[in-house]
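Study this one:
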Amino acid sequence: MTTQRISLPVRLLSLLIGFGLLFIGGRFLLAPETAEAGFGLHYQEPNFAFHYIKGIRDIFSGLLIVLFAWSSSRKPLLLTLLAGSIIPFADMLIVWRTPESNLWAMLIHGGTVIALWLLCYFLWKSSAEKEQL
């Protein structure tokens, strides 16, 4: 597989996002009630099935981002971030539609969507510049 050089700031930001997702996923597996509050919801569930599902989802997403950023795989990283932006968007809507939810958490989810789109823009822009050369 060929790779294209990713600028250092974009690569570092991608790695930060990936490692952040690994942390969040691990927290949902190891400290589900704490992670739930950070997500912006409060459940009265008898088990932590939702937490474990979300934890594994975030760990998988984080690993993909870290691996693609680490290996300078620009196109897979761009497509993963772009497609993956649906996750924090859906999370934002879930928090927004849930009674007694946390407004700050909803804004964090929405900000994450914007940050991912900006990162995708810079990945796409630098790729388009290389094609013109």
The radius of gyration is 16 Å.
